[in-house]
Amino acid sequence: MPIGASAAPALKAPVKVLGLSLSDIKHAVGSGFKQTLAKGMDKNTVALSGTTASQKKVFDLHGFESGYLTTFGRIKPTSFKNGKVTVVKGVSSASSLVFSFKDSSGPNWAFSYASTAVAKAFKAIKSMKFHLKGQSGLGDKALLMTTSTAISPTFGSVSTTTFIWRRGSYLAEVALGAYGSVSMSQALGLAKLVDSRIDHFG
After folding, report:
1. Which residues have CB under 8 Å from 140's CB, separation 6+?
2. CB 171 within 8 A of CB 202
3. Each residue of 64-94: pLDDT tens digit?
4. Residue 61 domain flag
């Protein structure tokens, strides 16, 4: 490199390629799923739980660049047999969300904001069992959130397992929802898959 020349900044991979794909879901959970949403986000459409118009401006101040949300659902979550509706036990939905910022200060702020906002919202729901704790082995810092809500004798309980973490200049979230309980190994495996992509391509 010539004296006085500076290296070009490393190019980031588009956040679209870092999140979960339908093939990821099929490999980890099984067949019978479809993609229900694929949505890119910019500074005007960024959203977190409880985000207001004024808070979107704060995202801009913290160097938000782009985001991408993907969601998936079971094609036939219920069946009708002998006059009764039954549900398919196990994972019924999945999602991933990846945010890119200019530097690591953005994810530091967003991680704190998201964990506080989500915890406040979930704790206010009296019918829901909610647990929040730190998670090791994922990104630079991570949280594990689980919920469980009793629905009815027919549908039983609905549960969710969500990982939120930051790595470098990225914030990410992977969530699984299920009738019954969520397999922790499936949820963590999918989160680590997204984290490995961020680490390698981000």
Report:
1. 104, 165, 166, 167, 168
2. no
3. 999 999 999 999 988 887 888 888 889 999 9
4. yes
Over residues 28-49, the pLDDT tens digits come to 999 999 999 999 988 777 755 4
Q: Work out the widest C-alpha separation in the chain, in whole angstroms.
A: 80
Q: Is 5 within a domain?
A: no
In a domain, 4, yes or no: no
Query: For residue 146, what are the domain limits?
Result: 15-201
SS3 content of the chain, % helix, strand, coil (to 5): 30, 40, 30
Q: Phi/psi class of residue 63: alpha, beta or left (left: φ > 0; alpha: ψ in -120 to 50)?
A: left
Domain-embedded: residue 6 = no
CB 103 within 8 A of CB 63: yes
CA 181 and chain centroid, separation? 18
What CATH number is given to the structural domain containing 108?
3.40.1000.70
Ramachandran angles phi, psi of 102, nearest 5°: -65, -35
